[in-house]
Amino acid sequence: MHRERLLLDFFTEIAIVEHLVRKHMETLSHSNFTAAEFGLLNYFVRNQRERESKATLAWCFQVSIEEMEPVIASLEQRGLLGRIGQGDEQVIGITASGHSAHAEAVNQMAPEIAPLMSEFADEDLVKAVEVLQETRRTFDNLPERLAS
Asked: Fewest C-beta in 10 Å: which of 55, 80, 95, 97?
């Protein structure tokens, strides 16, 4: 029973932190992005991807292609993403302006994030990131996720 409680506490903390970060980011006066828009640009930058199919993006964000479309369209209207092809297999690519906008958003957030992060030693953050990445990979490899 102790392990089940520990896992519940772990995932509860992840959910709370995600909610707090999302709300904080969306209320920053200089933020030009919703959390979903920033998340999509960040996906391309973090994974060093220039292009990805709409279907793959939807799978990565665990939403339908239809749910992904407004986020893509919003960034495309601002010239931050572009499209190649048609239909569900359409390829979405980040533009040079998208890279610049992402870098600018990160630079604008940095002064507000720095005081929060100064509470943690770098080695603790490295370990936390490793645990969270392994958790994500575990979820990515669940049988029902691989089948979708």
From this structure: 97
Total-model pTM: 0.79
Whether the pLDDT of residue 29 is over 60: the answer is no
- Decide if 69 contacts 87 (C-beta within 8 A): no
| pLDDT 10s digits, 75-90 | 999 999 999 988 767 8
Give 35's contacts (C-beta < 8 A, 6+ positions apart): 21, 22, 25, 26
The rounded distance, in Å, linking the Cα atoms of 93 and 38 is: 14
Asked whether the beta carbons of 45 and 8 are under 8 A apart, the reply is no
Pick the CATH number of 33-117 from 1.20.58.100, 3.30.300.30, 1.10.10.10, 1.20.1200.10: 1.10.10.10
Does the pLDDT value for residue 24 go beyond 80? no
d(CA 112, CA 73): 29
